[in-house]
Specification:
The structure holds 2 protein chains of 2 kinds.
Chain A (H helix, E strand, L loop, with lengths): L1 H12 L16 H6 L17 E3 L9 H5 L5 E8 L2 E9 L8 H5 L5 E3 L16 E2 L1 H7 L4
Antiparallel strand pairs in A: 1-4, 2-3, 3-5
Chain B lengths: L6 E5 L11 E7 L2 E8 L7 H5 L4 H9 L8 H14 L5 H29 L3 H22 L8 E2 L2 E2 L8 H24 L1 H7 L7 H6 L4 H6 L6 H4 L27 H24 L12 H8 L3 E10 L2 E10 L6 E5 L1 H5 L3 H5 L7 H7 L4 H4 L16 H20 L1
Antiparallel strand pairs in B: 1-2, 2-3, 4-5, 6-7, 7-8
The chains are: A alpha+beta, B mainly alpha.
Bound molecules: iron/sulfur cluster (2 copies).
Chain lengths: ~140, ~400
């Protein structure tokens, strides 16, 4: 009984971990308030966090191994021509991705990497901002 | 009036007192529960069927999502089953790293349970307190594996990320923190009067009942049944720890009564045990490779040529989880079966709830730390929405036929 009471009192006087939310609490200058230490900064992202994927169109050789191991079927291959030869390139649907990192590990050319970035909300699951490589696809895909 | 009237009382499938869908049909006499029936099957997701269409690597991540809390236990059992079937060795370093992740997960799962239990008896201050200290181990897991849950650490024949030298102090610090707060936490959880009033003598599962109903995990150990897969079955780094033994309430000098309070005791003591196990693993971490086969495609190609069956058992935070896999010259498991701990423990609900008060129902149900999503494995859905009642005989014949089919494929 007293154990938890002690804890409650301790919590009452400790520094708040959350920032006050409703609009009227928002300070005029966030940077200034942050500098003065009155707002809690965001929690730092750890090293090695599995975040948003990045894809390098130019180094990819279209081997398709990433598509094979992807557990969420988030990777799609499409045909392109490189010079004279036919090849394939990929797009990654971030809305399907589970951020397991299998594709990063398997890629023989290190064309897929993960960055420490987690803000990926969007209104459209299949919008271009949530499909990695969609711009290159529009440019290079061969359509019959 | 001496005539007793029995009223039916339905709780669930979705009810604020439960974290997951499950339906209980009670017969109550006044405030007393006179009869219990459990109805599972509301969160069936056909994981075993889906896995048949995915290759061995994809299946790991699918199984990680059977349960969000024991998200390393299921892949662990699965990897052990496939390794058993194919004879792939796990290097010693990988075994130790697997043990460390498993124990970190056990710590966060037990703290989560303590919070849920406190919430169920209306002690929300304690709920927030335990979930607050749970954050520390989640942060540690995030640094170690790259994610708070669904760690994506296991692969067949090893682990995917190494425990680098700069991570060891992070884990050490976490353990240090838990040793610091352990005293206070155990005092609050075990000595608090309101907790004792609510938990002592509620939801009793006697030793004989626990044996008869095959209870597993902390539920069984609280009834005095000293069984723990980590001790009873050689796996991971546990055989190296000869001091390891199943924790029962006897460890604090208490005769096991098998009530909710004893389940709390076992889980609190296991927190300390997990700290000891991780310490041991860090001190004795062997050098060497972390996986016996490099690269997922090579693993799939090797397993494609294997025929056989394997079993993997692991002590999840809730009890024993067992996976059975059949490999048959294919990229995907031809057949697999998951036995989740809640599946074993669900039957123990009946004697626990019999005769208890209505107000105690939530805490008794929560006391086995149920994970319905793990246990639900059997539902038939039809496109036209028609319902169909499958009786036991039909299901049995279905199962026998399936086994025949699988056997013929295996030997043929
Ligand atoms: S991180 Fe995993 S889920 Fe996401 S695209 Fe790569 S393999 Fe697929
Ligand atoms: S594995 Fe790498 S090289 Fe191969 S298709 Fe994928 S991104 Fe391209």
């Amino acid at each position: 009984m007293f154990g938890i009471l002690y804890k409650v009192i301790e919590q009452l006087f400790s520094k708040k971990a959350t920032n006050p939310f409703p609009g009227r609490y928002i300070p005029d200058s966030t940077i200034e308030t942050l500098a003065n230490g009155r707002l809690n900064p965001p929690v730092p992202l750890p090293e090695g966090l599995r975040g948003r994927l990045m894809y390098d169109y130019d180094t990819c050789i279209g081997c398709g191994m990433c598509e094979k191991v992807c557990p969420a079927n988030a990777i799609e291959l499409y045909p392109v021509t490189v010079g004279e030869k036919k090849s394939k390139r990929i797009v990654i649907y971030l809305s399907r991705c589970t951020y397991c990192g299998e594709c990063v590990d398997i890629c023989p050319k290190n064309s897929i990497t993960m960055e420490r970035f987690v803000f990926m909300a969007g209104y459209n699951k299949y919008g271009n901002d949530l499909i990695i490589g969609s711009a290159q696809r529009q440019e290079n895909e061969i359509r019959e | 009036m001496d005539k007793t009237i029995t009223y039916p009382l339905q709780i669930g499938p979705t009810h604020p007192a439960f974290k997951e869908p499950v339906r209980f049909s009670f017969k109550v006499e006044g405030e007393r529960v006179a009869g219990v029936d459990i109805d599972l099957g509301y969160t069936h997701r056909a994981i075993e069927v889906i896995s048949k269409e995915r290759n061995f690597i994809q299946t790991i991540y699918l199984l990680e999502r059977i349960c969000g809390i024991c998200s390393v236990s299921h892949p662990m059992a699965y990897c052990m089953a496939v390794e058993d079937a194919s004879g792939i060795e796990v290097p010693p370093r990988a075994r130790y790293i697997r043990t460390i992740i498993g124990e970190l997960e056990r710590m966060h799962s037990h703290l989560l349970w303590a919070g849920v239990a406190a919430h169920e008896i209306g002690f929300d201050t304690l709920f927030l307190y335990t979930w607050n200290i749970r954050e520390k181990v989640l942060d540690c897991l995030e640094q170690f594996t790259g994610n708070r849950v669904n760690y994506a650490m296991l692969t067949i024949g090893g682990v995917r990320r190494d425990l680098t030298d700069d991570l060891i102090p992070v884990i050490e610090q976490t353990l240090e923190y838990y040793l610091e707060v352990y005293q206070r936490t155990s005092e609050i959880l075990l000595d608090d009067q309101s907790i004792r009033y609510r938990c002592e003598g509620t939801g009793i599962l006697t030793y004989d009942q626990a044996v008869a109903l095959c209870a597993v995990g902390p539920t069984a150990r609280a009834s005095g049944l000293a069984k723990d897969v980590r001790v009873d079955y050689p796996m991971l780094a546990y055989p190296d720890m000869d001091w390891l033994k199943p924790i029962t309430p006897l460890d604090i000098g208490k005769e096991p009564a098998g009530d909710v309070y004893d389940r709390m005791v076992v889980r609190v003591l296991e927190l300390k045990q997990s700290v000891d196990i991780i310490r041991f693993c860090l001190d004795n971490l062997p050098e060497g490779p972390i996986a016996s086969i490099n690269g997922s495609i090579k693993i799939i190609n090797k397993l494609k040529k294997v025929q056989g069956e394997g079993i993997g058992r692991y002590e999840a935070p809730r009890g024993e989880v067992a996976h059975y896999d059949i490999l048959d010259m294919s990229e995907c498991p031809v057949q697999m079966k998951v036995k989740a701990p809640t599946y074993s423990n669900a039957f123990a609900w009946v004697p626990m709830l019999q005769g208890s008060e209505i107000a105690d129902i939530p805490i008794v149900i929560a006391s086995i730390d149920p994970c319905i999503a793990c246990a639900d494995r059997m539902t038939i859905l039809r496109d036209d929405g028609a319902t169909e009642t499958l009786n036991a005989e039909y299901l049995h014949s279905l199962s026998v036929n399936k086994m025949k089919e699988v056997k013929s494929r295996c030997s043929g």
